[in-house]
Design goal:
This protein folds into 2 domains: 19-235, no CATH class; 255-362. It is globular. The chain is mainly β and 362 residues long. Helices cover 1% and strands 68% of the residues.
C-alpha cells in the first residue's frame, strides 16, 4: 500500500507492505519440517529536487518473524520461534557536477540485532556523455543474521565495505561494458551448500553430517569480481558474450564452492511471419564454468564447457518456449552430498523444458 503526495517544495511517499514465505521439506532420510516467515515494513520518504540538486530523507521500520516447526517422535514442535525489529533513518544529497551526478548518503539505526546500533555511508558519481556511461561508488552494506543459525552461533551482523567501478558504451548496434567490484567483509555469513534453499535453512538433519545453519566467518573476507559483457546487433542476428572472474580468500571453515571465473556466449536470430504477428527467436548458448571445490572430500571439480539451445514463439501477449540444456548429455559432479548414496551428487544430463507465458495488463 502506497500513498504519494506531490507539493511545490517536496514529494512525500508513505508505504506499508507485508510479505509471507512458506517452505516445507520431508522425504528420504529427512524428518518433516516447515519454515514460516513473515515481514511487515512501514516507511516514509520526503524528497526535494531541483534541476541541480536533490535532497531526501527516509525513515523505515521493519518487523520480521520466523517459525521453524518439525515433526519429532512426540509430534509437531517448534524448533525456532523468534522475531527481529529494525529501525533505520537515512539522508541523501545529490548534486550535478561536471556533467554528471554526485551523491552522498548516510544511514543509521538498529539493523535488527538486539542492543546493536550502527551506521552505513554511501558515495557515488555517475557520468553520461553521448554513448558513454561511467560510474564509481563506495558504500557499506549491513546484513543482520539472526535466524536459521547453527546451534552454537549467536545472532551477528555481516558488514561489507565495497567499491565499484563501471564503464558502459552503447551505440545503435553495439553494447559493451566492464564492471569491477572490490570489497572486504567481516563476520561473513557462511553455510553448507545444498541444491535447494530450504535444505540450507534446515537445522540438524542426521548424525555425521556437516554443521547446518548460518555461522560467522572468523576472519576478514576480501574479494574482487570483474565482469565484462558485449553485445552486437546486425539486422536480425544478435551475438552476445559476457565473462566474469572473481578472487576471494578461502575461509578456514568454508570451501570456495562458487567458481572463480565463467563465461557465456549467445547467438540469437530473430524472425517474424504473418506480417509481424508471429515472432520467432532461435538461440544458441555456450557456457564455460570454472573449477569448484567440492564439499564432499574437499577435492576440486574440474572446469567444463556446456551448450544449450532454445526456440521461442511470440503471438500477441503469449510466449511459447522450448529450451534444451546440456546438449552434450554429460552428467557432471555437483559440490554437495547425495544423501541416498553418501557420495558426491551427480547432475542431470540433457534437459528439455517447455514453457508458456501470458502477459496480463491491468
Amino acid at each position: 500500500m502506497t500513498y504519494r503526495w506531490h507539493g511545490e517544495l517536496a514529494d512525500v511517499r508513505i508505504a506499508a507492505s507485508r510479505g509471507y514465505d512458506h517452505r516445507e521439506s520431508f522425504g528420504y532420510l529427512l524428518y518433516y519440517s516447515r519454515r514460516d516467515a513473515d515481514a511487515s515494513v512501514a516507511s516514509t520518504t520526503v524528497e526535494h529536487r531541483t534541476e541541480q540538486t536533490a535532497l531526501g530523507l527516509r525513515l523505515e521500520w521493519r518487523r520480521s518473524h520466523i517459525v521453524r516447526t518439525s515433526l519429532f517422535a512426540e509430534g509437531l514442535a517448534p524448533e525456532f520461534d523468534d522475531h527481529a525489529i529494525s529501525r533505520w533513518a537515512a539522508a541523501r544529497f545529490e548534486r550535478r557536477i561536471a556533467g554528471g551526478w554526485a551523491s552522498a548518503s548516510v544511514g543509521g539505526g538498529n539493523p535488527g540485532i538486539p542492543d546493536h546500533w550502527d551506521w552505513a555511508p554511501e558515495v557515488s558519481y555517475r557520468f553520461v556523455a553521448l554513448t558513454l556511461t561511467a560510474r564509481v561508488g563506495f558504500e557499506r552494506v549491513l546484513e543482520p543474521v539472526w535466524s536459521d543459525l547453527a546451534s552454537f552461533q549467536s545472532p551477528f551482523l555481516q558488514s561489507t565495505w565495497a567499491g565499484v567501478m563501471e564503464l558502459r558504451v552503447a551505440r545503435t548496434s553495439t553494447h559493451a561494458g566492464v564492471t569491477t567490484l572490490v570489497g572486504s567483509t567481516t563476520d561473513r555469513a557462511i553455510v553448507y551448500r545444498h541444491p535447494l534453499d530450504e535444505l540450507w535453512l534446515r537445522p540438524f538433519t542426521r548424525e555425521g553430517e556437516p554443521v547446518r545453519g548460518f555461522r560467522a566467518d572468523t576472519k576478514r573476507y576480501d574479494f574482487r569480481a570483474d565482469h565484462a559483457r558485449r553485445r552486437l546487433g546486425v539486422a536480425t542476428v544478435r551475438p552476445r558474450g559476457r565473462g566474469s572472474r572473481s578472487r576471494a580468500r578461502r575461509a578456514p571453515i568454508s570451501l570456495n564452492v562458487d567458481p572463480p571465473f565463467g563465461a557465456r556466449g549467445i547467438g540469437e536470430v530473430r524472425m517474424s511471419a504473418f506480417k509481424g504477428d508471429l515472432g520467432i527467436i532461435v538461440r544458441g548458448e555456450v557456457d564455460a564454468v570454472g573449477p569448484q571445490e567440492s564439499q564432499v572430500g574437499s577435492h576440486e571439480i574440474t572446469a567444463f564447457v556446456t551448450s544449450g539451445a532454445s526456440l521461442a514463439f511470440t503471438l500477441a501477449d503469449a510466449i511459447f518456449t522450448l529450451r534444451i540444456k546440456n546438449l552434450e548429455d554429460k552428467p557432471r559432479p555437483q559440490p554437495w552430498l547425495d544423501w541416498s548414496t553418501d557420495t558426491e551428487a551427480l547432475g542431470p544430463g540433457r534437459e528439455v523444458r517447455l514453457g508458456f507465458t501470458l502477459r496480463l495488463f491491468n
